[in-house]
Sequence to fold (1488 residues):
Amino acid sequence: MSQARFYTLDDFEVAARAVLPAEVVDYFAGGSGSERALAANRSALDAVSVYPRMLAGAAADSATTMLASLAAMPVAIAPMAYQRLAHPDGELAMARAARTAGVPMMVSTLSSYPIEQIADTEADLWFQLYWLRDQDRLEQLIGRAEKAGCSAIAVTIDLPIMGRRLRDVRNEFTLPAQVIAANLVDESDSAADPGSTSMAHVQRAGASAVAAHTSERFGPTLSWAELEWLRARTSLPLVIKGILDPRDAIRAVEVGADAVVVSNHGGRQFDGAPASISALGAVVSAVGASCQVLFDSGIRSGTDVLRALALGASGVLVGRPMLWALAVDGADGVEQALSMLATEVAEALTLAGCLDVASSRDLRTRIEGSLR
Amino acid sequence: MSQARFYTLDDFEVAARAVLPAEVVDYFAGGSGSERALAANRSALDAVSVYPRMLAGAAADSATTMLASLAAMPVAIAPMAYQRLAHPDGELAMARAARTAGVPMMVSTLSSYPIEQIADTEADLWFQLYWLRDQDRLEQLIGRAEKAGCSAIAVTIDLPIMGRRLRDVRNEFTLPAQVIAANLVDESDSAADPGSTSMAHVQRAGASAVAAHTSERFGPTLSWAELEWLRARTSLPLVIKGILDPRDAIRAVEVGADAVVVSNHGGRQFDGAPASISALGAVVSAVGASCQVLFDSGIRSGTDVLRALALGASGVLVGRPMLWALAVDGADGVEQALSMLATEVAEALTLAGCLDVASSRDLRTRIEGSLR
Amino acid sequence: MSQARFYTLDDFEVAARAVLPAEVVDYFAGGSGSERALAANRSALDAVSVYPRMLAGAAADSATTMLASLAAMPVAIAPMAYQRLAHPDGELAMARAARTAGVPMMVSTLSSYPIEQIADTEADLWFQLYWLRDQDRLEQLIGRAEKAGCSAIAVTIDLPIMGRRLRDVRNEFTLPAQVIAANLVDESDSAADPGSTSMAHVQRAGASAVAAHTSERFGPTLSWAELEWLRARTSLPLVIKGILDPRDAIRAVEVGADAVVVSNHGGRQFDGAPASISALGAVVSAVGASCQVLFDSGIRSGTDVLRALALGASGVLVGRPMLWALAVDGADGVEQALSMLATEVAEALTLAGCLDVASSRDLRTRIEGSLR
Amino acid sequence: MSQARFYTLDDFEVAARAVLPAEVVDYFAGGSGSERALAANRSALDAVSVYPRMLAGAAADSATTMLASLAAMPVAIAPMAYQRLAHPDGELAMARAARTAGVPMMVSTLSSYPIEQIADTEADLWFQLYWLRDQDRLEQLIGRAEKAGCSAIAVTIDLPIMGRRLRDVRNEFTLPAQVIAANLVDESDSAADPGSTSMAHVQRAGASAVAAHTSERFGPTLSWAELEWLRARTSLPLVIKGILDPRDAIRAVEVGADAVVVSNHGGRQFDGAPASISALGAVVSAVGASCQVLFDSGIRSGTDVLRALALGASGVLVGRPMLWALAVDGADGVEQALSMLATEVAEALTLAGCLDVASSRDLRTRIEGSLR
Fold:
């Protein structure tokens, strides 16, 4: 890999598309239904202008605190399933790069390495929880995350069912045998044999392995009551991910969330949803100082990070670009991508006249297209 | 037909275009004048974002009541003339599929099978009435609809004259001999001979057979007075179809309508009209709980259905996609399309956190493009 | 000419482009500068939706009164210079067709036939006045218009200098010898010899013959004072053409105008001007019932006419489409185009539920793109 | 050079692209990051419509006063570095043309000829100051500008660091040896030898020579305190360039600025910034009559100048078009471009009914796209 040709996060996508199988590219890049929410995430971000301030008198310091995590910049790795699809080192490589870059990483319930093994990298991990139908296994999973040293628990609430991702359906996409939901392998399974019996039925389930997991393991019965139970169950900071309506954000605060994530799941769930950035301001206003608000969906540059901060986010999650970087060059690729993003964030803050992340909230914004 | 290749309603259009004569495709797909209203129907729907709620705690139930009809989902088949143009089984196939799917079907005055024969399918039929110049035949037609067991009468009021559909004019489109306005054949005509004398002059009328029917049989003299007469004439629920200005909706309520249909006739009448969805909210506000508001024009997915519901509709009519499905595979095609749509509606409701159709009205909406 | 292929006014443009020299097409079709105002005229009209009303109970009557003229529809022919460029019969053919269609025609000061000869067609003429530097000739011209029986005088006020029409400049466009400003030929000139000495210098002026006329004959010194003089000078109804700011409309009323024309000169003068339709509403509000408001720039269909009426215009001027029709088939072409437009206007009014032109002002409008 | 083919300022760009090396074109034309701010500068200007007034009674007088400078039109040459990249005569040619046209020229700190030599042209120069890290050299530079007879000092405040200009980075753009920052050459350097030792390290710095200068010579520590010092240090009129937020404009007034320049640096600094024109109105409102407001970024025609004036600017800076003209034909090219722009400005003012620059502020504006 000639490192010199990567100048933007998008350059990693171009390179990754050249090395990944087409159906894996589709699985990573695709959205649900018409992919309108997916497209809106980008177009709505591009329409946000931020009025820079001048003469701050110093370069910006990008360091910040999200939940209990000190981070080198207001960025965390978004939870993404099955990272071995991108690279054999999967979540292990992603975590190593996150640790080097000094940013937290959200580990998916559907990670392709077990949480314990990922924790061995000593990265700052937030465990992302899909609510399992099986209560015993759910409690077990929470316990494993705690024991592995995760510094937060994040529950994804926007997946009562999986969005219809037509690319995967048309491709009849299935996971290769070596890519498994490592955290969900029965104890009786041979973890060393990812193609073991208990997982095999998932492969057979047909059109979409992830859809199969979802309908089998998870369900639409999750309600606020379970989140109250979880809040009592663990002392870790609680993140509730997948909120667009401010009324849900208020509910999350009532349940005891330490942070909410404004997200339309990267355009992969309800395809009639607004762009995530269109929902951010109202959520920030609704929760005030009650909890942190993180932003997810569509971040592709330091300028995008600043847009979210100016609209009130305490930080952002970045997903697909890190998968592309992982595909391109494993841990080194992600490290390079995070380093590039860190530079961009620092430059955006400095060019906007912010001494630090907190001061970015004072910036004014507008939607390009009207002078008023 | 390989059923596996239909993943969206639009897929049926692609397939139908491959099997139908070009001028029939134009007749089905086309709009009036510049086709601006036609295009606006789609672009305006796509611009409507709906803020999903989270953690409803259960999957949605799509069943609902429209007029006196229990329906498996808030969808009815729109009234479309001359369905034998799409498939030899025409309205008979459409009705069979509607019955299987558990949705009502609006039967056009200009159906190519007589209403009695369509009623034999035991589908839940709403009879769509064009106001005939000949009062005797009009009363006769109403009586036939009642006797056939239709569960509602719907009067189309947006066709004082027919919109200038330039595709048909350029194509010099005429109906094939075997496609007739079966409900309007004189009793003295031989119904078994669709090319019979009384219909033949319609074919000869030249440019557009439908235009010929319209100018000959119908006229611009219809007024609210006649609707009052009709309201007194029948005890069936009354639907008034083709309303865009809220003042007309209020008038419809005064006349005794049980439902109004917000519609620009699929972009086929006044081409300077707004997109139907742009007119929905004000009509809903104007009529309040006085009558149901149905929505028509441009629905192509379950997400579109949810958009209309969130803006206050009690249900929607779906037209062209069902014609395309009919062309592709008769009753089986429509059944497949309705089944697909039912799944999409259920998924959209569930992903938006609605337990049922009624709760969808509580969803917030926005027009993508402005953050405020 | 196969008449059957003309279904919209735009069809005449397509046909005319095939028969006219490219530089004449550019002279007719072009706008000034970036042609942004030209483009905005069309895009802004297309964005205007009109909410049709239903069940008027009768077809519409398009007849109306503009100034002192009874017209078959709320349309007049816009003043356009040098119509012999389009067809040898020029303004004579245009006037014959206007008379047949029952609509007024504005005759340009720069007509290529003398006003007296055009008046011989017995069309209802409004004389369009460019303010000549030479006061004697100006008075002479007004007298000729009155004597020829013109039923109104219209002063164009948006041409202090000519807009920079880059197509003409790049083409080094000059008038052919036989096309002259017939009303401005000196009495001492041989009117039978259009290439006579007094006109020859105009040809020699180079880049643009019209620009030459303008700078030589007209000037930027015209002010409201001269319009007051004109108001006193003639008893004909006075039209002031070329208004976009409502403050100028109020001034026009004070001066005694019977009508103002909201116009950006078809995008041919100030290229930073708004689309004409964007200026209409405020002018209508400003003048109230004090004078009629006519609309000009971009009308291409009956639906466009209705848009202007719904926004408060008493009628519209139609320009380029009539020139294209003239080029295609002389008086017969224009007659066909006006007949088509009359049908479209009647259909638009009827489809919008208007009994007459006056009732169209009660229609509601919106700009497609926002639901509020 | 055939002068006849230049009809708009954009024509110079087309011609310049044919004669300049591709990487120099990229350096001139490019913006930072995604180049969204660059593109927005143009699209936002095009969306501004100005309502012309009629019958002013005379042609416009374009002459005006900006700061202490009498100018033939409300235009000054924007400060642009390294003009020898465009033409061997560089800033000398630019200044000669500015003098001929009667407009001020802002000379960049990074000019490729020394300020003294440029001043020899007797043009009206405003010296643009980048704040050097070395206080002694900074004072020296100010003194040189004063001594050379500059009539204003303009401090650029939107460059705490340089924006990431990806075209230059991808091109690994470096300055040719003969193009130097002539004002920054050490006195001990041989000014006659632009490739001298002290500059050579800049060339070696790699990716971008300008970036190298920036990081080495300038820094993000500039604050309002230094501007107060400068205000006290010089009696020349003070211009503060690079303001988008009105709060910074108010601060500039407090510091004693005689003018502020609303600018996003031609889209070359913070790529999330709004279009400059989107920021103009609020700045004008904020400062009122306290100081002049100049506008920069995207001006390409006299119509654009009028747009800025109508929104409250006292004048505009024009950059890239003058560089292109310089590349095409040196001083003659710029003279021709400025002459063209002067004609366009006069025509735009006259077509908008303005007698002078001051009256243009009374014009109404709108953003094309909404009627309200």
Summary: The longest strand of chain C covers residues 238-243. The radius of gyration of chain C is 20 Å. Chains C and A do not touch (no CB pair under 8 Å). Confidence is low (pLDDT under 50) at residues 187-207 of chain C.
